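User: Here's a protein and a ligand (heme C). What would the complex look like?
Assistant: Let me lay out the input and then the predicted complex.
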Amino acid sequence: MTISKYLPSAFLSAVLVASVFGGSRMSAQRPLAASPLRAAMFVVDSAKLYTEAQAAEGAKVWTATCAGCHESKDVTSADFKTKWVGRSLFELYEQIRTTMPDDAPGTLTRDQYLTSVAYILKLNGLPAGETALMPDSATLSTLKFALPAPPSPSPFAP
Ligand code: HEC
């Protein structure tokens, strides 16, 4: 029967695409999404760029300082993503450091700015890891803001 013959090879090629692009970082639950290509395009992203502790600190900064003006959707919306995805974390960090809080730019510590970036990564669904994000421009410049693979779309989604 064709189905039983072709399904396994479709499965294998999806796994192949996922492993070529994602390596071991790719989550086992995600790669077999309906479109392997789409999954592959978003893969870089699963890099673990910050620690959970940094995100927790960033959440405090956010609540104490940013939340007075921002809702979290300000840093997760489609508009935000269109603007920032694909750019370096240094650009995002610098933008926040030099313009925020809007009424007193530059008044937080570097670490507060850095942890707010970590928190923004978390809000966007990027996973925490063992290695801390460092506030050094050379490293931050090499790190791209890339999105995590979207959750497997429901087969019933339009
Ligand atoms: C006093 C109000 C206020 C505070 C406090 C504030 N912001 Fe903002 N923020 C704004 C306004 C207004 C804008 C949009 C105008 C602009 O880009 O300058 C903005 C824009 C941004 C953007 C750019 C969004 C985009 O779509 O590009 C980011 C990121 C951001 N803020 C992060 C933060 C973070 C992180 C904090 C806390 C450390 C913070 N803001 C605190 C008012 C504020």
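Summary: Residues 2-43 form one domain.
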